[in-house]
Amino acid sequence: MSRAPEFIPLSDVAVRAVAGTNSRHVALIEDAFGVLVETPGGGVSLSGDTRARGQAKKAVQAIADRADQGLEVADADVRVAIGQARGGTGARGAAGQSLPVGRRGQVAPKTPNQARYLEALGRCDLVFGLGPAGTGKTFLAVAHGAGMLLRGDVDRLIVSRPAVEAGERLGFLPGDLNEKVDPYMAPVWEALTDILGAEQLRRRREKGEIEVAPIAFLRGRTLSQAFVIVDEAQNASRAQMKMVLTRLGEGSRMAVTGDPTQIDLPHPNDSGLAHAVGLLEGVKGIGVTRFEAEDVVRHPLVERIVRAYDDDAARRGRTV
Question: Is the pTM of this model over 0.85?
Answer without folding.
Answer: no
